Amino acid sequence: MSARKTIVLVSSDNNELTVNANIATMSNTIKHIVEKNASEPVVLHNISGTTLKIVVDYCNYHLEHQLSSKDTEQWDTAITKVDQENLLDVIMAAHFLEIKSLSDLFCKAVASLIEGKSVQEIRQTFSIKNDFSPEQEEQVRNEYKWTEGKTK
Question: Is 43 exposed, middle or buried (0-12, 13-18, 19+ CB in 10 A)?
């Protein structure tokens, strides 16, 4: 990678963020783009400005606080307190940018949203339409009877 001190990231809605080049050490995707086009801004067509800001905030915090601590855990918990759409967008962005720790953190937040909930409650939480007929639903229930009692 070049000796750049900053990188310009451009979101899908044309928001530009100038960030420390060390952020590339956390994202394999950004690292590879910068290696190929060292002087060009990194255009991220599939990441909105709001989502990119969350990703950059996470990376900056973790670059500054490399050792895990109670403060880091509290900060991580706080950054996941976003609306459902942003929660899912950050997971997709983290996957695309190859930032495993961010992906894991936000996936854990989604898991906590569904933990202990019934299928109906999960559908309600994520606005998932039930497209099973009553017969299909009964068949699935019978096939996975072993899961009964594992939720509310």
Answer: middle
